[in-house]
Amino acid sequence: MTLRIAVQSKGRLFEETMELLKETGIKLNNTKRTLLVRANDFPVEVLFLRDDDIPQAVATGVTDVGIVGENEFVEKNEDAEVAKRLGFSKCRLSLAIPKDIDYKDVSWFNDKKIATSYPHILSTFLKDQNITAEIHEITGSVEISPSIGLSEAIFDIVSSGATLVSNRLKEVEVVMRSEALLIKNKNLEAEKSAILDDLIFRIDAVQTAYKKKYIMLNAHESKLQDIIDLLPGMNSPTVTQLASNGWCSVQSVIEEKRFWEIITKLKALGAEGILILPIEKMIL
Ligand code: PRP
Ligand code: ZN
After folding, report:
1. Ligand 1 pocket member 158 (CB < 6 A)
2. What is the C-alpha to C-alpha distance for residues 1 and 126, in angstroms, rounded to an integer?
3. Does the structure show a pLDDT above 70 at 233?
4. Which of 1, 55, 208, 236 could hold 78 in an S-S bridge, CB 3.0 to 4.6 Å?
5. For residues 182 and 196, what is the distance between their CA atoms, to the nearest angstrom?
6. Which of 48, 45, 49, 90 lies closest to 69 in space, CA to CA?
7. CA of 153 relative to ligand 1 center, distance in Å
8. pLDDT tens column, 39-55
């Protein structure tokens, strides 16, 4: 039994998805991107598809699971289930207009023409807001359509915002936020579900480690309790005696986002020889 995973063949999610699969120990036999590739050492095969086709492929069972942007999943409105939110490839779907226009509120969009590749999400939003506008569906280069007179506004993916800036547009309404999702067919057989559980277990292990760092430091016994209080860790920190009198080595796990705050306090408590190490995997 093999679990088939659909992955975007190129574009926004491709690199990070392949990186994640690699980190979960899924090695692909064939580095050349053929349509279907079997993994070594793990009962998984990867099917490369256009992102637009992934939600339907999962819903109809052409593939068991898929990794796809939430934007694409919501737009296609197919009957599949979110197995896990993957947290990468974050972006927003926003309305943008030429930057020199005075904008007060969403009523500006009444009777305007808006170009987008996401007509379903856009029309739902406009209906909610009681706006009547004309939706012009195009598949690529949405951002140039106002400058060539094809539309007065766009509704598209914004990530860094660089595309908007270089096209003299400004983001005026964020309609939804998106990230990569692992989606699954609703009727997976038990054996495939078990492989999926194992895959999610591996993804969790990889991703938990992303946000954590391993910390080692030397401290004087007199400051030990204060230092331990600063380092909650997963469990209580490991403390070992050093050869020189009254000193010990403390090892724990800290959250990356608290890094600078913690380091400053540790130094104030006289910690020495502080080492911060990346964690490759972590099983909680
Ligand atoms: C999207 C979108 C913009 C760009 C925005 O295209 O259409 O062109 O990303 O990103 P930025 O805010 O970082 O500049 P994408 O690369 O997903 O490819 P697409 O042309 O297939 O939509
Ligand atoms: Zn696309």
Report:
1. yes
2. 45
3. no
4. 55
5. 10
6. 90
7. 16
8. 888 999 999 999 999 99
pLDDT for residue 283 is more than 90 = no
Average pLDDT rounded to a whole number, residues 223-237: 82
pLDDT digits (tens, 9 = 90+) for 20-33: 999 998 888 766 66
State the ligand closest to the CA atom of 141.
1
Q: b/e map of 70-83 (b: 16 or more CB within 10 Å)?
A: bbbbbbbebebeeb
Confidence at 257, pLDDT banded by 50, 70, 90: confident
* Ligand 1, atom 6, residue with closest C-alpha: 157
User: From the centroid of its chain, how far is CA 89?
Assistant: 4
Q: Which DSSP letter does residue 118 get?
A: -
- Can you list the domains of the chain with their CATH numbers? 3-88+179-208 (3.40.190.10), 91-178 (3.40.190.10), 212-278 (3.30.70.120)
Place of tokens 């992955």: 7
Q: What tokens were used for 226?
A: 């204060």
